[in-house]
Amino acid sequence: MPLLLTSTHSFGRIVDNGEPAFIDGRDALDNYLVRGASSLTANGASTQEIVVENGSSVTLAGTTVVASASTSTGIGLVDSDASLTNSLVTASRTALSLGSDTSVGLGSKATVTGSTLTGGVVGAVVGGTSELVLSQSTLIGTSGFGLQLASGRVSATNSTIVGGTNGVLLLTDQTVSQPGRLTLDGTTVQGQSGAAILVNDFGLPATTAEILVGNRSTLAGGNGKVLEVKGVSTANMIIDNSDVNGDVSADVGATANITLQNQAIFTGRLDNVASLAVNSQAQWNMVDNASIGDLSMNGGTVQFGSPTEFYKLSVANLSGSGLFVMDADLVTGQVDTLEVTGTATGSHSVLMGSSGAEPTSASSIPVIHIGAGDAQFSLLNGPVDRGAFSYELVKKGDQDWYLDTTTKVISPGTRSVLALFNTAPTVWYGELSTLRTRMGEVRMDNGKAGGWMRAYGNKFDVDASSGVAYTQTQQGLSFGADAPLPFGDGQWLVGLLGGYSKSDLDLSRGTSAKVDSYYVGAYTTWLDEPSGYYFDGVLKLNRFQNKSDVQLSDGKKTEGRYDNHGVGASLEFGRHIKLADDYFIEPYTQLSGVIIQGQDYDLDNGLEAEGDRTRSLLGKAGATVGRDFDLGDGQRVQPYLRAAYAHEFAKNNEVQVNEVMFNNDLSGSRGELGAGIAVNLNDKVSIHADLDYSKGDSIEQPWGFNFGARYRW
Length: 713
Hints:
The chain is mostly beta strands. The strands form 5 sheets. The chain has a 24-stranded mixed β-sheet that branches. The relative contact order is 0.06. 5% of the residues lie in helices and 61% in strands. It contains 1 helix and 62 strands.
């Protein structure tokens, strides 16, 4: 249906024989016929209908064209050129027409910048071999189409195309063989009552349309469709780096091929679509069950609606490599499903939504079925997190994949819960280790009053045999003051302490936890100088602020917080034995215990955690060996080595996650090694440093350190 403009009335002015003509705001309103390779230039003018023929041209700047006759066209080009800048064209029928005389076949070209073209029926008509370039302009077809494109070429940049029926109509120009090409760059196309873009052959030879929707362009259809293909036409639409919402439909006998690329997002139905390609981080968001022809994936994503909507996608053939975002409700058994009726090839990932809810029963849920082929499907980010456990996608036979809830591993949320309830004792003992070495320094001061401060750090690697594997890194600061009692010949010293420690837990796969510990306490030490016997006692009260930060299998995050308290004590008895040449040995035994308050809390994905009281009872026997170096003038150096055997007696610290029972168990034996040095710089100031290592059945301390200073008054 090419449009050839024919005048229905005589023209007020005719420009012919290669002559140039100029009009401005001083000229009277008139209509123009420009022919014979002539030119018309208007600047700041107002005029009526303009027809340009036979290799002529028209240039309008800041000009208004009004064609009011019922069959008139504002500007009609036949094998000619036009340039419109900051102009306004209004016509009762068509604002701008680009056509060609079939005997000439050169076509027309128009460049429209910063202008508005409004037609009572069509904003612009572009025939075969013609080209329209729009920039920052608006096309309006009040009752019909914003743009009618018949096998020509249109590119629109940062523009708007609006039609009362369809935004764009693409049809066939029988005089040319090329397809119509529409390129949208940052442009909006709107059909107020019909599809944004309609491709129709109207019973003529089939129309082929090439459509590029690029650079954040948008499509909107009053009937909910962004593309509609009628008759036996073919539409090849590429959506590039744009977000398009709406449906695509093709009649039986028509063909629609859709390509999504360069992070494009398409949300809508695909009805009778022959092929879909989802490439380069593009995404199709399904809004209903769908059946399409060939689906090719090249780094793209198909998302099966929202987590509460369950859809089935049926595909004739599948190829490439992509991601399917699916969901399942293991309580109701509902699940998104993918069915390939023909051949499936390539390697594909499946991302299943996670949940804190617990499945009601163990079962296998079908997710993917293929008719034939060697396609592979695997879960992105590992097993699907559902409640207390995570579940794998399992292939059964050659053609089916199931979400298997009969086999399971502990979910990241559960691991964070278990780790937090398991960590409080190691936090408590990590803080206590600095106090134990502090006692030795106090005894070396011969019962003098003073104040002290100490910084420390520890790392613990906890084995899965304890219930869950994790790494704990602790750092903190302790401070206090002490003085001798006024009785017992100065053999008893008492003090008060306080401090803070921060422990970061790494549970792998992006899941972590944190414990902020605040504590106060009291301590005492007794030393019988003649015999060397000593006793140390510590009583400590803690407030723990705990936080889980969980990375789920679907890429989302969930967290939970709770506070609890703990109280514990340590009793140590030993003897400082002096040897020759100022060497000494200090055998000792120690018994420490702590009780941590139980607590219930939830992760914000619905995972429920209930922790009983956590208990620890640690027995230890060991010895410290070292040597005193008296440097005179109050200066004294005491290096030492320490070895010990420790045993944890507490075995059952129960935790429930979604009413599933777990047991944290740090029981077992371990060996400890340490080295340190205490230095009196003078009669007032001393400093201390200590290094530790331990390894046992379920826990290893690769390193621990503390250093500090004491001031005696």
